[in-house]
Amino acid sequence: MTPELVRSAAENSVPVPGINVSRLDWDLKRITPGEFDKYWHERQVQVIPPSLFEPNREIWLEIGAGSGTFFVEMARQNPDAFLIAIERSRDRGNRLVRKAAKAKLPNLAGFRGNAIPAVITGIPSNSLSRIYIMYPCPWAKTAHRKNRWYLHPLMQHLVRVLKPGGRLLWTSDQKFYIDEARFICESRYGMKVQVHGEISPNSYNDLGNFPGGRTKFERTFLGQGLPCYEVVVEKV
Ligand SMILES: C[S@@+](CC[C@H](N)C(=O)[O-])C[C@H]1O[C@@H](n2cnc3c(N)ncnc32)[C@H](O)[C@@H]1O
Q1: Residue 32 burial class via C-beta count within 10 angstroms: exposed 0-12, middle 13-18, buried 19 and up
Q2: Is the pLDDT at 101 greater than 90, yes or no?
Q3: Which runs of E-coded beta strand occur in 124-214?
């Protein structure tokens, strides 16, 4: 972690150097959630049964969970939380569903499906304690940047479904992605930064319980000696 950067951004709402603030401001002005939400509400796609969202449950969600390695183990290690993992790809999603069923854990549910309608139409406001976004596709080309989760109309729903004090945990091998996610979470959504920088075990990320890495992508990057980055933000 780089405490100076965390402090300066938290105090002044100034992002870490190197990100294009005016382009992000421009992008943020062009997000039109109304139309997007209408599209998905009209389709009535149900991915996660609403009965899972019991009001007094501690619920954690992983978006783009791959074949589910991380959340299966997290569910074993955290029996008091209820964990929901969702993955869109057919192969990885099917593996996730099989792995979750085989684990026979009462606090884990794995779904193959699109997280966008799952969150927009299926998750009540203020219901999640944590959302994990681990190594999302970074959409690194400028022309594709609207697909980055923090520039996507889904983003306002990620904040909506978190409880006050709930955490959004982003991890990526792409530093720019983490820096931009932080800037937007802080400046647009007023979220509080808890951790930001290159990953190392801390009280937010459970890395200490996964010596080789938490997810498949993380294990690959760390195995190749590549740096990985995180930002953990909290809904105020
Ligand atoms: C780069 S992979 C990372 C997988 C895993 N988190 C890891 O770290 O090993 C990103 C994953 O997000 C999934 N994904 C992308 N868009 C999604 C969506 N709308 N809903 C659910 N999963 C999605 C992709 O299918 C892919 O498996």
Answers
A1: exposed
A2: yes
A3: 128-134, 162-172, 192-198
Q: Best of 61, 62, 63, 178 to mutate for ligand 1, by most ligand atoms within 8 A of CB? A: 63
User: The whole model's pTM is what?
Assistant: 0.93
The pLDDT value given to residue 3: 33
Which protein residue has the closest C-alpha to ligand 1 atom 25? Answer: 89
Could you tell me the CA-to-CA distances from 149 to 2, 31, 91, 134 in Å, in that order? 24, 12, 22, 11
Whether the per-residue pLDDT at 5 is higher than 60: the answer is no
Better-predicted residue by pLDDT, 22 or 68: 68
Residue type, 39: Y
Instruction: Over range 18-38, report the average pLDDT.
Output: 87
In contact, 115 and 78? CB cutoff 8 Å: no
Residue of 137, 139, 172 to test ligand 1 pocket, by largest number of atoms within 8 Å of CB: 137
Tens digit of pLDDT for each residue in 184-234?
999 999 999 999 999 999 999 999 999 999 999 999 999 999 999 999 999
Do 51 and 218 form a contact (C-beta atoms < 8 A)? Answer: no
Report all structural domains of the chain as residue ranges with CATH numbers, in order of start: 3-234 (3.40.50.150)
Alpha-carbon distance of 165 to 58, in angstroms, equals 12
Residues in the chain: 236
Helix 69-77 to helix 90-103 angle, to the nearest 10 degrees? 20
